[in-house]
Amino acid sequence: MRNLRFRIALRKEPEGGYTVTVPTLTCACVTFGETVDEAIAMAQEAVEVYIESLQERGEEVPTEEGHLECRLTVEVPG
C-alpha cells in the first residue's frame, strides 16, 4: 500500500457551506460540506471511492507527480 497526496480546493458558497474540488481528479471528485472540516472529510471519502473504482476497472490512478502550482495576479479594470 502506498500513500498518495492530492491538493484540494475549497470554495465558500454564498448560501453556506463549502464546495471541494480535487484538481487532479476534476472529472470525478467534487463534493460539499457544511463546514471546512466536513468538506475535507467528504473530499477524503470521494477520493478513496474514486481510486477504488479506478483500480477495480484496472485503470491507472492519476497522481500529482510533476505538477507545479502557481498563483497569478491579474489586474481587472473597473
UniProtKB/TrEMBL annotation:
Pfam families referenced in this protein's UniProt entry, alphabetically: HicB_lk_antitox
InterPro entries recorded: HicB-like, TA_system_antitoxin, TTHA1013/TTHA0281-like
Chain ranges of the HicB-like antitoxin of toxin-antitoxin system domain: 6-64
Gene3D superfamilies per record: 3.30.160.250
Protein name, UniProt field: Type II toxin-antitoxin system HicB family antitoxin
Originating species: Methanoculleus formosensis
